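=== RUN LOG ===
request id: a7f3
mode: sequence -> structure
chains: 1
length: 265
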Amino acid sequence: MNAMPQAIQAAPLLRVSGLTKWYGQIIGCRDVAFELRPGEVLGIVGESGSGKTTLLNCISGRLPPSSGSVEFDTARFGLADIYSLNEPDRRRMQREEWGFVHQNPRDGLRMRASGGANVAEPLMNLGGRHYGKMRQATIDWLERVELDTRRIDHKPRQFSGGMQQRIQVARNLIHGPRLVFMDEPTGGLDVSVQARLLDLLRELVRDLDLAVIIVTHDMAVARLMADRLMVMKGGLVVETGLTDQVLDDPQHPYSQLLVSSVLQI
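=== RESULT ===
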């Protein structure tokens, strides 16, 4: 990735401070703080139960935290705590300025609508009414994610899992978001399908200069996609740094264990 030098010079797009989530007496994540700049890709890594998905859901407005703040440089209000916005304004911001790629594409697609309708829907939600322009934009994006445009009217169930994920990626990028969340975007796919999808995601992120927060347990995915890593254990961030530094010279004992157990298989 080559976005880091530009990202360092820019003002924060996202600022997370003291973010904490409790489930009763169980900690989901605790006192997490970081900044994300335009064009930067942050990887959140850790084993199952480490708190990375809880953190992602709190940052993305899907799960209110117990304490702390998530500030985003919104187009309408400038840097604002997303949880201080009223519900309509927060939903509008999420719809206009964010994308969210689920691990299971069925969670991010309307399975009864065609693949083309799924991709075009964000444009309609933003007020698009010109059918021809929206259909052409959809065709362009299907081509961009390397899908056969002749299948624009096929339902998602008629596509393989990898193709469904490509539809979901197109759906989340067609409206030009500034920040995209990715939750294990290659999880559950065959290795060969994973490899090409990762190459595609990396190309799109670079070409569009996207800011991305990606959650993964796969260190190979983290190395390929992320500029910077946060390692989580038990709801806490135990190490953070540039991706190559964390993976090649981990400092925390848990990071060392995590890297060695995955990369030396």
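=== NOTES ===
The chain has one domain: 4-106+178-263.
The chain has ten helices and ten strands.
=== END ===
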